[in-house]
Please model this.
Amino acid sequence: MTSFSETEFSQKYNTGKLAFEQGRYRLSIEQLEQACQLISPYSRLGGEAKMWLITAYQAAGESDKAITLCQELSNESYGETKKQASRLLYILNAPQLERPKKWMTEIPDFNSPTSNQYRRVSNSNTKIKPKPQIELVDLSKVNTKENQFIWLSLGIASLTVISLFII
Model:
């Protein structure tokens, strides 16, 4: 553990969480590992950072690292972090059920070097509809002269309100 810099830890921790939420698991792991080096592993924030790191490992397909870190937390940490790590370890060690391929949807990783295999192919039979053009109005043809309508409507409204109070 290096010297604790609260702002540096906070920046790396928040960047790691944000990267995880965006599905950028490698960046998340990198940032969270660095954040964990900046804080005591026995603190509340250190436990939270490691729990996020476990989740990022799992999402990135590094289940062995996730289980190892989870075992460390369930044995060495205290309080709520220990409880969460024990619960998560139980889930991580649960047997995986086989899912039929037809239930799964493959989501391409566009950040990988092989992502150019997923290119948008246009269909020559598809006709693209043109966007409707916005017509500009010539203001010289618009009647902009006041026609006293506003005063008439205000007069009728005020007479209606007065008549309600009189009755």
Observations:
- Residues 6-92 form a domain with the Serine Threonine Protein Phosphatase 5, Tetratricopeptide repeat fold (CATH 1.25.40.10).
- The CA atoms of residues 32 and 76 lie 19 Å apart.
- DSSP finds six helices and no strands in the chain.
